[in-house]
Specification:
Blueprint: E1 3-8, E2 17-27, E3 29-30, E4 33-38, E5 44-45, E6 48-50, H1 57-69, E7 71-73, E8 79-89, E9 96-106, E10 109-113, H2 120-124, E11 128-132, H3 134-143, H4 152-161
Parallel strand pairs: 1-8, 2-9
Antiparallel strand pairs: 2-6, 3-4, 4-5, 4-11, 7-10, 8-9
Length: about 160
C-alpha cells in the first residue's frame, strides 16, 4: 500500500518496548458528503478500527464500519488509497512506543443498514454517524486545536481535497 505520511511525534526512545497495531479506515462519500464519526467533543474521525487477530484489513474495514455506523460496506467497491503511520509514546503506557498503521480505503455502502455494536469507549465518547463536507470537517477539527496524536484523519482529509 502506498505510504501517504508518517506522523512522528519523536517523544519516545528507541529502548522502549513497541506496541504496534494496524487499523482499517473507510472513506465513504455519498453526494459530496463523507461518513464521519462525530464525538460529543465535536471531533470528527473516519469510521474504522483495529484488526482483530487473524483478520484481514478488508474484513476489519467491513466489520468496523458496520459496528460503528450501521453502514454496510459493499466489498466489491473497496479500493486502496494509502497508509499513514503514527509513531509516538503510547498514551496509555509511558514506557511504550506506539506505532499505528492506518490503512485507508475508498468504498461505497449498501442501501440497507446493519447493526451498531459500539464499544464502551465509543459510547462514552458519544460517537455518532454524521454526513459532512470535507472542508467543514477539516475546519471543525482544526478549531478544536487537537493534540498532534488526534490530527491523523484531519490531515488525511486535507490530502483527499488535494487529491493526495
Amino acid at each position: 500500500m502506498k505510504l501517504l505520511d508518517v506522523l512522528d511525534e519523536k517523544n519516545y526512545t528507541d529502548e522502549m518496548e513497541v506496541f504496534e497495531v494496524t487499523h482499517s479506515r473507510a472513506l465513504i462519500c455519498v453526494e459530496g458528503l463523507y461518513a464521519m464519526q462525530r464525538a460529543k467533543s465535536g471531533e470528527y474521525k473516519l469510521p474504522g478500527g483495529r484488526l482483530e487477530p487473524g483478520e484481514t484489513p478488508i474484513h476489519a474495514l467491513i466489520r468496523e464500519v458496520e459496528e460503528e455506523t450501521g453502514l454496510l460496506v459493499s466489498e466489491e467497491s473497496i479500493e486502496e488509497i494509502g497508509e499513514i503511520i503514527e509513531i509516538r509514546k503510547d498514551v496509555f503506557d509511558d514506557n511504550k512506543k506506539y506505532i499505528c498503521h492506518s490503512l485507508y480505503y475508498r468504498c461505497n455502502v449498501k442501501d440497507e443498514r446493519g447493526s451498531l455494536h459500539r464499544s464502551q469507549n465509543e459510547i462514552e465518547k458519544g460517537l455518532e454517524l454524521e454526513w459532512i463536507g470535507a472542508n467543514e470537517m477539516i475546519l471543525s477539527n482544526k478549531a478544536l486545536e487537537l493534540e498532534e496524536s488526534r490530527q491523523r484523519d484531519t490531515k488525511f482529509m486535507e490530502m483527499i481535497l488535494g487529491e493526495i
